[in-house]
Amino acid sequence: MDDFNTYTRQSNKSMDPMLKAVIGIFVVAAVVYIGNILYTKYMIHQVG
Question: Does 6 reside within a domain?
Answer without folding.
Answer: no
